[in-house]
Amino acid sequence: MNTPGDTAMIRTTHAASIPAVIQAAARPLRPGEAADYDPLLHLIGDARFVLLGEASHGTHEFYRERAQITKRLILEKGFNAVAVEADFPDAQRVNQFVRGLGGDKDAIDSLGGFQRFPAWMWRNADVLDFIGWLRAHNDSIRSPLEKTGFYGLDLYSLNTSMNAVLTYLDKIDPPAAKRARERYSCFNCYGGDTQRYGFDVATGVGSSCEDEAVSQFVELFSRSAELAGLDGRVAADDFFNAEQNARLVKNAEQYYRTMYRSDVSSWNLRDSHMTQTLFALEGHLATLYRQTPKIVVWEHNSHLGDARATDMTRRGEWNVGQLVRQRRRKDAVLVGFTTAQGTVTASSDWGGEAERKRVRRPISGSVESLFHQTGIPRFLLLLRGEARLKAALQQPLLERAIGVIYRPDTERFSHYFHTRLADQFDAVIHFDETRAVEPLERTSLWEAGEAPETFPSGI
């Protein structure tokens, strides 16, 4: 029988051997060599959902490489939609632009809807480059049914989405617009402050607008056959957008009302909404465009890695990656991105300015630390079907997640969670040193950056 000391030694020995197993399985990625992603595209095969993650919301390499992979999926595998962790109406403005519609003349103008914090997530140089490429690609295609769209999945835009529903109904059914305006007037006393609405309702100070938001969605949904077929494809597209905005208002109302009562419930509501929107988009593309929907999803690793492989499942949380995998199984491919060190664009507090922060070296024994020990600066790991690698990465390991806020002083508590990487993703792409994504509006705080880290790793 092993003593506790023996068990600890076995674990240490096993952990020490993991970098060697990773090194043997790693496929080096050379800068600018698109062909190095051939093994990933082979793994993807005929899958119709490819979920491309990120370990932070502010790393240049994650945005750039997701864009490069997405271009290949569009050109070589017929993917016809890019769905991102962004508000639906803001992304719809981009969708109009890349399809050659709407009033925006330039790619940078089409990103004008992304004004709320954190604007740098979508108003950055890498997204701008991709939107410009997507417009040029679509311009080379004659049929509007074959162009690739750009869509938002998130639910923070309660006020913008209400306005979108009213604008749509004002054009096609003024009496229905009047009814909608009366229902949505329930929110007027909060002056657009959705967080105050949620707090007041949760504490009993304010009245809930749940019935009004649900009633408006039900009325619009009940007229789907009538409104979607008013005048061909354009009318059906317009109705789809209005319906998704009405769904967003209903779900956002519930989200803001719940966020002050339970982190678990609000997280699950948000990821359920994003998944609902994703599958609604799939149905829309299949029905209206008569396409086989093939959708690339860009979101954070915490949304796209299978929650069942992480601490989340113990807390009763699920996420988009889990829900899509459960419904689509091998028809979905989940790809994570990691980094060991460098810089990142993030804020110190919610609603704060974008800062260029230095990312601390990874904690010893973490996924990122093990990847760093391979000595390979950039590589691809295929986890699906790699028995030895999957066995090495089956044990729980720490993994880092940086959102729009990065707090190095509390990094272990704020930014690490446990995962079984082999079950979380089908593939992982690692860049050992990365740099901050460049916001379109650079603040003096971002320009100043942050002094190099002098603290030892693992503190």
Care to describe what's here?
The chain has about 450 residues and is of the alpha/beta class. It has 2 domains: about 10-80 and about 300-450, EreA/ChaN-like  fold; about 155-290. The protein is built from 20 helices and 11 strands. Strands 1, 2, 3, 4, 5, 6, 7, 8 and 11 form a 9-stranded mixed β-sheet that branches. A two-stranded antiparallel sheet has the order 9-10. It is globular and about 70 Å long.
Give the low-pLDDT segments. 1-13, 451-459
Radius of gyration: 23 Å
- Which band does the percent of strand residues land in? 5-15%
> CATH topology of the largest domain, what is it called?
EreA/ChaN-like  fold
Q: Approximately how much helix is present in the residues?
A: 40-55%
In short:
This protein has 459 residues and is of the alpha/beta class. Helices cover 48% and strands 14% of the residues. Strands 1, 2, 3, 4, 5, 6, 7, 8 and 11 form a nine-stranded mixed sheet that branches. It has a two-stranded antiparallel sheet with strand order 9-10.
Which labels suit this protein?
disordered C terminus; 20 helices; two-stranded antiparallel sheet; disordered N terminus; nine-stranded mixed beta sheet; EreA/ChaN-like  fold; 11 strands; alpha/beta; 459 residues; globular
Note the topology.
Elements: H1 4-25, E1 27-28, H2 38-44, E2 49-52, H3 60-77, E3 81-87, H4 88-98, H5 107-110, H6 125-139, E4 149-154, H7 158-172, H8 174-184, H9 194-202, H10 210-222, H11 224-228, H12 232-258, H13 263-288, E5 295-298, H14 301-304, H15 320-328, E6 332-346, E7 355-359, H16 367-372, E8 378-382, H17 387-392, E9 397-400, H18 411-415, E10 416-419, H19 421-424, E11 427-434, H20 444-448
Parallel strand pairs: 2-5, 2-6, 3-4, 3-5, 6-11
Antiparallel strand pairs: 1-8, 6-7, 8-11, 9-10
Helix pairs in contact: 3-6, 7-8, 7-12, 8-10, 9-12, 10-12, 12-13
